[in-house]
TrEMBL record:
Keyword vocabulary terms for this entry: Acyltransferase, Transferase
Coiled-coil spans in chain: none
Organism (species): Nonomuraea marmarensis
UniProt cross-references to InterPro entries, sorted A to Z: Acyl_CoA_acyltransferase, GNAT_dom, Ribosomal_N-acetyltransferase
Identification of the protein by name: GNAT family N-acetyltransferase
Domain N-acetyltransferase: 16-185
Length: 211
């Protein structure tokens, strides 16, 4: 899309492609959400968007993507990549920041269709956006946060070399729950072979960065 080059931005890894979703991709992404993204009775998200009927979960997913497109500015941006594995949309991997040209800090967040858990996909898609953050956008730090009982997310974070960065207590569906914060400085990031960023230069002005 000539006037919004983010739709041409993608990241490829040995097994995955991360891209902004097309409308057809959004339908498939909604299907993944409707199928389920976590076990019943457990909530890994601060905002419980997944705690609704499958049809509404699919619609929530599509609307969230539309909001991220419409609210994107250089001062406050969010890119929600559709993750493609073996020709299927399997989840989303987000990267977002505020005042990035000055602060050079990016946050990440993701979800993966439940039937694709346990295959190392979550780790690989996080590595992909870290590659974008550090190698592509020149980030100084990447940060993330997860509930203390979200063992899968915590496992990925620790595997990738993040450092503990404190805790926060949240109200999760009426109960206090602790999240752990993590920070990955650029000097502790290890570049992975086979990870490539495509069509980034024309997108840099949208992030407030020079080409």
């Amino acid at each position: 899309m000539r006037n919004w080059p983010l739709f041409e931005l993608s990241i490829t890894t040995p097994r995955l492609e991360l891209r902004l979703p097309s409308l057809d991709d959004l339908d498939e992404l909604g299907d993944r959400a409707a199928e389920g993204v976590h076990e019943a009775g457990y909530m890994p998200f601060l905002f419980p968007w997944s705690d609704v009927e499958p049809v509404q979960r699919a619609r929530n997913t599509v609307q969230y993507q539309f909001r991220s497109w419409g609210e994107f500015t250089a001062a406050s941006w969010q890119v929600e990549f559709a993750v493609v594995y073996e020709g299927q949309i399997v989840g989303t991997q987000g990267i977002m920041a505020k005042d990035f040209p000055v602060i050079r800090e990016a946050r990440t967040g993701s979800w993966l269709g439940q039937r694709f858990h346990g295959q190392g996909i979550g780790t690989e898609m996080r590595r992909a956006v870290l590659h974008l953050a550090f190698a592509g956008l020149g980030a100084r730090h990447a940060v993330t946060e997860a509930f203390e009982d979200n063992h899968a997310s915590l496992g990925v974070t620790r595997k990738l070399g993040y450092q503990e960065d404190g805790i926060t207590v949240h109200d999760r569906q009426g109960k206090p729950v602790t999240t752990h914060r993590f920070r990955l400085p650029r000097q502790d990031w290890t570049e992975s072979p086979g990870f490539e960023i495509h069509n980034l230069p024309k997108c840099l002005p949208l992030f407030g960065l020079e080409t």
